[in-house]
Amino acid sequence: MSVSVEYARGMISQLYPAVSWKARVNRMKPPQVLAIYYQAKEAGKFDKKKKTAEVRRDDGCYQMTIFEYLERTTGLNEWNGKD
Fold this sequence. Notes:
- This protein has four helices and no strands.
- By secondary structure, the chain is mainly α.
- The protein starts with a helix and ends in a 9-residue tail after the last helix.
C-alpha cells in the first residue's frame, strides 16, 4: 500500500510536540519522510493505544501519602481526620 508523502509528513510531524521538529519535517526530502514514516510505523509509534508503565508492584510496596507518612512517624491520626 502506497502512502502519500504529505500524509507521512503529517504523521511524523505529530510524533513530537516541538515546533522545531515540525519545521524540520517540513524541510525533509520525500524519501527521508517516507523512511522515517515506515520506521515509526514498524516500531508501533502510530498505534492508538497508549503504552503506560505499570506502577503497581507485586511485592507489596507502594508509595505512601503524606498523611500515612505522618501517621506512621508521629503516631498521630489527626493528620488525615481519623481519631
